Amino acid sequence: MKKKIAVIDVGTTKICTIMGILDSTSGLRVSGVGIAPSHGIEKALVSDSGKARESIRESIRKAEVMAGYKLNSAYVGVTGRHVVSMNSRGAVAITRSDSMVRSEDLKRATDVALNVKIQPEHQVLHIIPRSYKIDGFEVKNPVGMNASELELDVHLITASAGSVQTLIQVIKGLGIRIEDLVVEPLASAEAVLTEAEKMAGVLLADMGGGTTDTVIIRNSSICHTSVLPAAGNQITTDISAGLGISFDLAEEMKIKYGVLTQPGVKPELERTVGESGQSISLQSLCEVMQIRVEEIIRLIVLDIPVEKYREYIPAGIVFTGGCANTAGLADLAGALTGLPVRIGVPATLNGVSVRELSNPAFATSVGMVLWSLHNQGTYNRRVNQRNGIQRFFDQVLQSFK
After folding, report:
1. Looking at the structure, do residues 149 and 171 belong to the same domain, yes or no?
2. Which of 25, 79, 165, 291 has its CA at 20 to 30 Å from residue 277's CA atom?
3. How far is Cα 398 from Cα 39, in angstroms, rounded to an integer?
4. Which of 151, 219, 184, 137 is nearest to 41 (CA)?
5. 244-256 tens-digit pLDDT
6. Rounded CA gap, 192 and 186, in Å?
7. Among 196, 193, 195, which Cα is nearest to 205's?
8. Is 12 within 8 Å of 81 (Cβ atoms)?
9. Please, which residues have CB within 8 angstroms of residue 307's CB and are 6 or more apart in sequence?
10. DSSP readout, 29-45?
11. Do 58 and 173 reside in the same domain of the chain?
């Protein structure tokens, strides 16, 4: 039995479409990859629907040409500063005579957990179960067990309904049915984190063009999700302003020559290089980059929801995204935070053009493919919240069977 799967990663700097075929015997094979420059997207939000639609169309067209068939539906990534997360708990009493936990009790606990105040005009995107307890003891499957009280912990991720609906309308305007919306740091985590890191406690930081997406996972459970409005484009803007060069040239210089060092250590880059008729001091380039990157690292640490963060995430920080390719990032972050730090390269897929996806810049794109395989229907989009909760509940029960 074969099934077609596709994902569309709408980023600030690029759009990536991946099409694949899932075979029940041989697994997933990528059949098409389409990468196009992103226009009409600022800080991961649609700022010009027309330009964004054309960029996405071009990405889809390239993937379709390679795959040899038309893309009809896809998983779509969502990020942006409007994405907010919280943890919530629902507890209910089991009062029937046999004291057995039934599916309706789980649904009641879910309803209680969702009875929280979310930001105005926000909608729920993900309802992720973290743990279940009966009479204070944690269990994997409470249904069918005897108890007087059932507790459910969930991680809720919400987003601006207006921003989400704008993206949905752009995708639908291309004739694409949306299978699911996936908050992007969750996808990136699928692509680059190990099971040992997830169990011990780890922070993933996906530094893209417009935002830095973070997620903290402990005991294999998602504890915190956040989107910070500082990333690669801010670094490039600083270079452009500091060195008096165009944004495009600053981006080129950043990628070609940018090097980061540990605090207090100056890179041995006294020479200059000529680009587009201009001479650039590499020393100045790297100093400007260093200041902004150190600021982003501090923002990431400040966003951790506990003071003793080293104990909270002993497995450290895993950087991915396009900015993770910057030389010296891991050493700089390790020196500033006192944590283990590594660069996360996405898992290898099988199929055509997968070699170019083996790059931190495509962690979200690859992770969305893995998410579609591992979480089909588990954490579905909340265009209609009431129906979405029912779908979530149905899938949780299915996972117990």
Report:
1. no
2. 291
3. 41
4. 184
5. 899 998 998 899 8
6. 10
7. 193
8. no
9. none
10. EEEEEEEEE--SEETTE
11. yes
Given a contact cutoff of 8 angstroms between Cβ atoms, the answer to whether 110 and 92 are in contact is: no
Full domain range(s) for residue 117: 84-156+388-400
- Give the span between the Cα atoms of 53 and 174, in whole angstroms: 7
Shared domain for 178 and 41, answered yes or no, is yes
CA dist., res. 202 & res. 180, Å (int): 26
Task: Provide the β-strand partners of residue 224.
Answer: 216
CATH number reported for the structural domain that contains residue 134 in this entry:
3.30.1490.110
Q: Residue 16 is part of a domain; what is its CATH number? A: 3.30.420.40
b/e sequence 252-276, b meaning 16+ C-beta within 10 Å: bbbeebbbbbeeeeebebeeeeeee
Q: Is the pTM of this model over 0.90?
A: no
Cβ-defined contacts of 353-360 (< 8 Å, 24+)? 353/30, 353/32, 353/33, 353/66, 354/30, 354/33, 356/33, 356/35, 357/18, 357/30, 357/33, 359/325, 360/192, 360/319, 360/320, 360/321, 360/322, 360/324, 360/325
Give residue 154's identity as a one-letter amino acid code.
Answer: V
Residue 352 phi, psi (nearest 5): -85, 145
Do 75 and 92 lie in a common domain? no
d(CA 139, CA 62): 47
pLDDT tens column, 58-112: 999 999 999 999 999 999 999 988 999 999 999 999 998 899 999 899 889 988 9
Number of independent structural domains in the chain: 2
218 part of a folded domain = no
Residue 340 identity: P
Provide the 3-class DSSP secondary structure of residue 206: strand
Between CA 125 and CA 214 the distance in angstroms is: 16
